[in-house]
C-alpha cells in the first residue's frame, strides 16, 4: 500500500516557512498600515494554513475526493461569513433602517 | 516482559479462511474493505468529514468575532493590546514545532522506522502540546488576577469597557475550545503512542497515526488564525 513518502527535507522546508510566516506576521502587526494590516495578517495566516493542509496533512497527494471534502469546509465557512456580513455591512444603507 | 511483539492475535487460520472463503490478507485489513489502500482512503475521508464539521464548529465563533469586532474595531484593538504577544508567539512556535514532529512521526511509521523513532516523535509532539497548555494556564491565571475575565468581577480601565468584555468573552470561548481540542489531542496521542510502542505501525499499516496527525494539524491551523486575530490586532493601538 503506502501513500506518497515525502522527503524529510520537505517537512523541514515547510516548517521553516511556517516560522518565517509567524515572525513576519508579528513584525507587521507592530507597524500601523491601516486596513493593510488586516489584509497582510489574514494573507499570512491563510498561506500558513495552506502549507499545513497541503504538505503536513498530505492533501497534495490525496485523492480528488479528499480535496473536494476538505475544500467544502472552507466553502461553507465563506458562505457563513458572506451571508452574515452582507447583513451587518449593509445596515443603514437605506434611510431609516436599523443601524 | 514486553518483547515488543504486536499484541494482535490473528484469528485461528482454520476458522478464518473457512468463514470468509478468501485469500489471506493483512491482519489489520477489515473485511468490508477490498485493500489496505481503500481502507486508508476511507479513514482519511472520514477524518476530513469530521474536520469539516470542526471548521463549522469553530467557524461560528469566528463569525461572532467578526460581527463584534466590526461593531467596535477600536474597542477590540484596545482589549487585544492587553494580551501578551510574547506568550502568544511562543505558543504559536510551539504548535508549529509540534506539527513538524507529528508529520515526522507519520513519516517514521510510513517508512517502517524502528519503534523508538516513532515513539520518540510522538512523545515530542505530546510534550510540546503539554507545554502549549502550560503557557495557556499561565496566561489564564494572569487574566483572573487582573480581573479581565468576563462576569461580575470584570474590570476595565480603558475607553471601551463593553467591547473589551465582549472581546474577552470571545477570547476565553475560542482559546478555551481550542485548549479542549488540545487536551483531547493529547488523549488521542497517548493511544497512538501505545500502539506505536506495540509495533503496530509500518509501511503497510499506519492509518491511525496518519488520521490522528490530521486532527493534530487541524488544531494547529485553528491556532494559526486565533493568534493574529486575538493577540496582534492591538499592537499599534494607542489610547487617544
CATH class of chain B, please?
Mainly Alpha
> What is the CA–CA distance across the termini of chain B?
69 Å
Uncertain residue segments of chain A? none
In DSSP terms, counting alpha (H) and pi (I) runs of 4 or more, how many helices of chain A?
3
Structural class determined from secondary elements of chain B: mainly alpha
Mean pLDDT of chain A: 92
Helix content range of chain A = 55-70%
**What would CATH call the architecture of chain B?**
Up-down Bundle
How much is the radius of gyration of chain B in Å?
23 Å
Structural class of chain A: mainly alpha
CATH topology of chain B, by name, is: Four Helix Bundle (Hemerythrin (Met), subunit A)
Number of DSSP strand runs of chain B: 0
What's the quick description here?
The complex is a heterodimer of chains A (99) and B (240). Chain A is mostly helical.
Furnish the topology, listing elements before pairings:
The complex is a heterodimer of chains A (about 100) and B (about 240).
Chain A (H helix, E strand, L loop, with lengths): L7 H22 L6 H21 L7 H25 L11
Helix pairs in contact in A: 1-2
Chain B lengths: L15 H5 L15 H36 L1 H9 L3 H26 L4 H31 L15 H37 L9 H26 L8
Helix pairs in contact in B: 2-3, 2-6, 2-7, 3-6, 4-5, 4-7, 5-6, 6-7
